[in-house]
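Feature request disguised as a bug: please show the residue count (338) next to DNA-binding transcriptional regulator, LacI/PurR family in the output. Example input:
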Amino acid sequence: MAGAVRAGRPGMNDVAKVAGVSHQTVSRVLNDHPNVRPETRQRVLEAIDALGYRRNSAARALVTRRSATVGIVTSGSMQFGPATTLAVLEQSARAAGYFVSVATAAEPTPETMTEIFGSFMDQSVEGIVVIAPEERVANAARAASAHVPVLMLAAMDPQPGDPTVVHVDQRSGARLLVRHLLDLGHRDLVHVSGPLDWFDALARRDAWHDELASSGVHPREDIVGDWTAEAGYQAGRALLGNLPDAVFAANDQTALGLLHAFAEAGVRVPDDVSVVGYDDVQGSDHFIPPLTTVRQDFDALGRHAMEVLIGAVTGEPLVPVPVPPQLLVRASTAAAHS
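Example output, currently without the count:
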C-alpha cells in the first residue's frame, strides 16, 4: 500500500491514497457497487481497516437523501416493559440496517418533546418511535410535530390524529389469566393493579373486569399498586385476614411481594391461594413457587415496530397488528378447593 497519511480523522481521500485507487473507487466499495474488481475491493477494505475510517454519515445523507437513522424517545423508566422495549427496538433497528439516536424525556412535556423532535430533525432521522407507557408521554408526543413518520409504542386505543400505535395485546394477556383462574374453579378473586396512569395497567385491569363480568363473576375491589414488590407485599399483608381464592398481580414484581407476604405468614401458595403475575421477568420461573404469568414477546414487538415504521418511511404503509402474549402455567396456581 502507499505511504503515510496526514494526522487527524481519516477521510475517503486518505483511504484512496493508501489503497492506491481513486476517490470514486472508494465510494463504490462503500456503497457496495458491483463494478469493482474483487482484488481492488479487498485492497480498499484493508485500507479502511488499517486507517480506522468511518464514513461521514451527515455528508452521505446530503448525497443520498437518506440518513438510515431513526430517533427513539424514552421516558427513561427502568420498569421491565419500557426498558426491554428500548433494548429490542435498538436491536431491531440495527438488524434492519438503521442507526439509532436515543433521547430521554424524563419530564415529558410538549415543550420537551418538541425540542427532542427538533433535534432529531437536525440529525435527518427518517422516522421517530416514542415509547409511551404513560398518558403524559403520549400527550406530549401528540402535541409535538415532525416532518417524518412517528410511531408510538403504547397499549392504548389511538385517537383521531394520533401517530400510528404498535403494542403487545395487554388485554388478551389479562383475559388468558382470567380464563385460567376460572377454569381452576376460582371465584373469590382480587386484582392488585399497576399505577393507573400507565396504559398497561389500565388495559390489564379493564380486561380483567370485562372477562370476569362476561362470566358472571364479581371480584373484590381492586388494590392499586405501583409495579413494585413492596406494593405487592403490603397488599398481601392486607389480605391475610380474609384470603381470596386467587390474586392477579399486575406484574411479576408485585407477585413477588405477594409471595413474600404469604410465605412470611405461613400461607401456602397455591394450596391456600393461587397467585398469577404478568411479564415473565427473568427469574420468575424460580420464584417460590415458580410463577404462573404471561410472557410478552418483546422481540416480535421490536421487529413489528420497525416493519411498520420502515413501511411508513418508504411509502408502503402496513396496518399494525397487536402482538399476542403467551400464558405460562407454573406452580403458583392450582384448582380451587371443593
